[in-house]
Amino acid sequence: MPDASAADAALATYPLLEQIQDPADLRSMSSEQLKELAAELRAFLIDSVSRTGGHLAAGLGVVELTVAIHHVFDTPHDRLVWDVGHQAYPHKILTGRRDRMHRMRMKGGLSGFPKRSESRYDTFGVGHSSTSISAALGMSIAARVKGEQRQVIAVIGDGSLGAGMAFEALNHGGPLDPDLLVILNDNEMSISPPVGAISRHLSRLLSSRVYTSVREGSKTALRSMPHLRHLVGRWEEHMKGMVMPSTMFEEMGFNYIGPIDGHDMDDLVATLNNMKAMPGPRFLHVSTQKGRGYEPAEGQPVQFHGVTPFDSKTGRMHKKAGGKTYTQIFGDWLCEAAEKEPRLLAITPAMREGSGMVAFSERFPERYFDVGIAEQHAVTLAAGMACEGMKPVVAIYSTFLQRAYDQLVHDVCLQRLDVTFAVDRAGLVGADGATHAGSFDLSYGRPLPNLVIMAPADENECRRMLQTALEHPGPAMVRYPRGCGPGVEIDPSAPVLAIGEGEILRQGEHVALLGFGSRVAPALEVGEEINATVANMRFVKPLDERLILELADQHQLLITIEENVIAGGAGSAVSELLSAHGLAVRCVHLGLPDVCQEQASHGEQLHVCGLDAPGIRDAVLSEMADMGLDPSLKPALAQGQV
């Protein structure tokens, strides 16, 4: 783990950066000083993230843009909203958090994303994509209503701009004439041709005071002559048509400028100063290179998007110990299942690498569909495929499926369509923290008619459940955690599971531990220590009602254990069943508490929530003592004698 002394020692090599305590210190800097600062900032970022891990390539691509924005605008009075936040590390460094970067994404340390409670410079908490324009528009409207003069800037990437929410905000915002600047950070060159001298010259021309004055003066003059009012739009299109094509952003009411080189500090500062003086909604298109200034990241921007600690000199990442992750198990299964099932189609909302679909996309390109950051579309696309007899598999993170809840309800479950949901990152996710925790999928999935919900206890069971979901003629969800399982060997020939059937793993006395998914392994560990019955429930919906009623009849205390919020989760389903049958057996639920989970290691998070083996054991023994069940076990365990 990196320590503060290492970070402090590194500061000696960044003399200009060390002088920056907040963005106000940038505003008196010369052009050459800004360029030097950007170089130091980039070097510091590489060194810092190499020690802690985190998001790197996106931040390297916006170093100059970040410096320029804070130089030109009066943040935090002027509001700056970052989209997603992967690119916000340079922003954190320049806004008084440089000396805390050594604790990035650790318990009690800096969040990996902008966070309102962390800094007044983080005006909006992010982590999911495509929210920046909506939030910034809301801030601009609020400033107008309150009579406050301030600039509002939203920085959004080309990937995030493809999502529907971003266009909804642009469509709504343009006609309102807000004092809003949207900056498109285009790091894939996916919209416009490469930046050149002519494009740079025209961008600066179009953002100049001369052009703005002529434009506004001419429009005012034309408006005074009603019979010529129709010429206003034609005049402006003619003037811009001489130098660049009109764009969809102009049609939505934004004054479009760009593209400009996002690594040319002089152009960035000049253009931002010009656009700062413009009234109304403005749209600046900036071209950047992901991973800029660090050769390994420039060559492999996807691999260096999110990194583990690495050797900053070579770019070689430190490997994590352990076997196959659940994500890799899904990826292997997907390819093998596609070999046998020609109707299988795979969908991802811009998470090919994260969801383990690289091999499938290469082997079955005609059956692979990356829809971009468009979770709602992904789910309804799958529904349409299922209507035509196909077997779509939607690979999606638990936290991102939340964005497509209406589509899950209305387009899939209501119509009982045959869609398989491979829900990754279910439960706690460690360093990514609250914005990415998959804490709620059992609670929001349980109420939906026709949806089968499964949670594997180990690697082999995950594979069996995926195949079970694929063969099930209706909507089915397999939710599995981030990282590796307990290390169970995978048997490709293992049969599919009977829907709604769990199993008893060990028979004990007095207490039954009902484990769901990732919490089965620690439940079994505790069961062995205290001689409790342990059940692997497997299915959250439908529950194995026969098994639960049997356990309730044979035991005095039931403990449900899940890596999901307690409210509405699997444990709630068990209590509902017991209540429906009029059974008064005591049932206690262990799960995630009613708080947003802050970043820490996965083990630290489980410990805080009482969901690791020691926490489960303490909770069970406390309940047993309250009920007078074998209280002598408690001191024996406390002395380490069991």
Automatic annotation (TrEMBL):
A cellular component annotation (GO) from this entry: cytosol
Pathway the protein contributes to: Metabolic intermediate biosynthesis; 1-deoxy-D-xylulose 5-phosphate biosynthesis; 1-deoxy-D-xylulose 5-phosphate from D-glyceraldehyde 3-phosphate and pyruvate: step 1/1
Sequence positions that bind Mg(2+): 158, 187
Cofactor note: Binds 1 thiamine pyrophosphate per subunit.
Residue stretches making up the Transketolase-like pyrimidine-binding domain: 324-488
Cofactor(s) the protein requires to work: thiamine diphosphate; Mg(2+)
Top-level lineage group: Bacteria
Region annotated Disordered, chain positions: 292-316
Keyword Phosphoprotein assigned: no
UniProt: thiamine diphosphate binding residues: 86, 127-129, 159-160, 187, 294, 375
Keyword list, A-Z: Isoprene biosynthesis, Magnesium, Metal-binding, Thiamine biosynthesis, Thiamine pyrophosphate, Transferase
Record GO terms (molecular function): 1-deoxy-D-xylulose-5-phosphate synthase activity; magnesium ion binding; thiamine pyrophosphate binding
A single BP term in Gene Ontology: terpenoid biosynthetic process
Pfam family, one: Transketolase_C
Primary enzyme class: transferase
EC number assigned by the record: 2.2.1.7
Reactions performed catalytically: D-glyceraldehyde 3-phosphate + pyruvate + H(+) = 1-deoxy-D-xylulose 5-phosphate + CO2
Subunit structure: Homodimer.
Function: Catalyzes the acyloin condensation reaction between C atoms 2 and 3 of pyruvate and glyceraldehyde 3-phosphate to yield 1-deoxy-D-xylulose-5-phosphate (DXP).
Family designation: Belongs to the transketolase family. DXPS subfamily.
Protein's recorded name: 1-deoxy-D-xylulose-5-phosphate synthase
